[in-house]
Each structure stands twice: as C-alpha cells, then as structure tokens.
Amino acid sequence: MKALIAALLLVASVAHAEPIAIVGAKVHVKPGQTVENATVVIDNGKITAVGANLAAPAGAKIIDGKGKVVTAGLIDSVSTVGLVGVELEASAVDGQFESKDAVHEDPVHAAYEARDGFAPRDVTVSVARAGGITAVGASPNGGLVGGQSAVFALDGSTEPVRAPAAMRVALGPNGAAGGSRGKTIELLREILDDARAFGRDKASYERNQKRHMIADRLDLEALQPVLAGRVPLLVDAQSESDIRAALRIAKDFKLRIAIVGGTEAWRMTKELAAAKVPVLVDPTANLPAQLAASDVHDDAAAVLDKGGVAVVISTLGGSSGARTLRQLAGNAVGHGLAWDKALAAVTTGPAALYGLTGRGTVEKGAIADVVVWSGDPLEVTTSVDAVIIGGVVQSLANHQTRLLDRYRKLPIVR
What we know:
By secondary structure, this protein is an alpha/beta fold. It folds into two domains: about 1-70 and about 360-414, Urease, subunit C, domain 1 (Roll); about 75-360, Metal-dependent hydrolases (TIM Barrel, Alpha-Beta Barrel). Helix content is about 30%, strand content about 25%. The protein is built from 15 helices and 16 strands. The protein has helices spanning about 1-15, 100-105, 115, 125-130, 180-200, 200-205, 215-220, 225, 240-255, 270-275, 300-305, 325-335, 340-345, 350-355, 400-405; strands at about 20-30, 35-45, 45-50, 60-65, 70, 75-80, 135-140, 145-155, 160-170, 235, 255-260, 280, 310-315, 370-375, 385-390, 390-395. β12 (about 280), α11 and β13 form a beta-alpha-beta unit. α5 (about 180-200) runs parallel beside α9 (about 240-255). The protein starts with a helix and ends in a 7-residue tail after the last helix.
C-alpha cells in the first residue's frame, strides 16, 4: 500500500511541474504579434499569462529573458526523426521501404503507422530538440502509399500528440508503378476507388462478393479517415504535371491534401490558392529533385506566399539535419519571404496542417511548448538557451554535445 501511495505521489509530482516565469524577453506571441520586455508564465503545462512587465508568481522557476527572444517551439511537419537513427544502418531505419518491394511488388503501405516505429529516445530526437524543435510529424515513405504519419512531442513521450496525423503518398518517380508516371496516378485513383467501395459496403467485401481490390483489408480500412476528410493526404509531387494530377484527384475524391516538395508549385500559385492546398517546402533544395521537375526557384516560398498559398517549411524527411529547420526558414527570408511568414511556416502553419489545437503560439492558454533563443531564431549564429515542452524544461544535452565535451580537451601527445 505504501509503495502504491509513493508511486501515485511521484506521478502527481511529474504531472504538475513547477511554475516557470521567463522574464524580460522579447516574445513573439504569434507571427505578427510581438511584446517587448515581456514575462511568460507557465504552470501545469499551459501558458497562464504573457505580457509586458508582469510580475513572476511566487515560487516560480525564473528564466532570465533579458536580451533574449521567445517563440513557440518549432514543428518539423515531415520528418524521420525518431524513425531513422542512422540512415545507412538498416537496423536503425523504420518507416522507409525498399524500392523494389515498395514500388513494384507491394506499393501500398497505408496500414503502416509511424507511431509503431517511433523511438522517443533515439539520438536524433535529442539533437532536434536542442535545435528548438518541440514536435515532429514522423512520416513514413516508400512506394505509392507510404503510410500514416504521427505527430510526436520531443519530450520522450511514447504516445503521439496526434495519430494518424496524415497519410503519405508519392507521385512521380518516387511512387512510380511499372516505370510510368501516368500509371502511378491511375493506380492511386484505383486504390482510392477501392477504398471508397470498401467503406460503403464492408459486409460484401467480407463475404468475398466484391471485385478484386489492389490493397488488402487493413490498407483499405486505413484509408477511410482520408476519404472522410478527417486526415490530410500528404502528396509528394515535384513537377507541375504531378501537382495538377494531385489537385484533380483531391477534387474528384473530395480530399484534403498538401503538396510535399512542390519544386514547380510556384507555377501553379493561382490553382493551389483557389483549392486552399498548402505546400510544404525546403527553401534550400535548389537543385532539381528530378529531371521532370527542373524549374527550381530559390524564391519559391515567397512566390507561393504572395499568391495566397499557405507555406509550411520543413526538412522534408531528414533526421540528422532536423535541427537546421530554423535555418531553412532564415533562407526563405533571404529570398523574399517576410520574417513573420517564415516564423509561421515552422509554428502555426504545421499546427494548422495537423489540427494541433493549442500549439504554435505563446498565447495565454496555449500548450507550453516554448523556446528561449539568444537572439533572432532565424539567424544561424543564434543559439538555443532553453527548450520547454508541455511546461517542463528539457535537457539540451545530446550525442553531439557529449562528443564535444569528450574531445574538448585532449592530452597533448609529444
């Protein structure tokens, strides 16, 4: 009995972290709203107050924010952090399928869930967190239908913030079936049509009274939230023709979609804006991803934004380089994207994409995912001073800092 009481007290103490007050900082409450010399009060995992010259509550842990900048935690919307530890080591890779099996023999992995492969204590998680990233959209890929994404907070949580958060599909060479881009689009339509027929009459399917379907029952079941519009379809599409095909499929099946990569999306600003389809971009990807999509523009993010397209900035799947997310946003600013829009593209934009209520801002009542920076977060020379996730101050130690500490001082060998 005593052991049970002690355990319950421990759980209670963890669930209710000490109050925190970040005092005297420049706070970007949300993109376009900044408060100078502000105090941010955090209690029980939420932001309870934010404003200029507020007094810190008694007993709060004080973080000196003088000369520093506070933003919401960054969100990498398409990432393999937690899924891919060491990219060239097969045993450390999850959520990526071998091209032969995925593309030709078994192109549909809709039932695969990233939540099942996510490793919350992987080395890539702590490195990304030290870079100011507080959540990622862990996203599988490979073949035509890569599987279900899940959003995880990078605080060691084993349960996702949202799952499924999206379904991942790929057009063009990445998803090509039988070597044909057109065949890939035809196959995706057939899969969606099969899933729609399955959803309308599961009983006939179970009695084997339906026509032959490409995908198996678990994959067809996994596609139901997509067809119902509850989960967005993330479509890897680079060329103008593939993006147009994605828009047609979205219209025909009444889907919520977002374009991932979108090398030539800037050519279709008007159509994307009219369809309210966001585009996920890596502003530093200035080389053609494929020969069929060779018209790359460094200012694509700015062009899309000016045309009314919602822009989300992401590493688009990198695990080891996830910590550079803010640098990608900074590059977009250097090529014409407004600073506030770049901040939105790594905070409120990803939160809106996945329906993450209460994340992406430093407003009163928001979930306390907050980063304290030494200066402008989109400048490469700025460092991360503190990361708070769910109201708890996180350690910034990681594999890279441990290597630095280990080799900082080496004995002189004569």
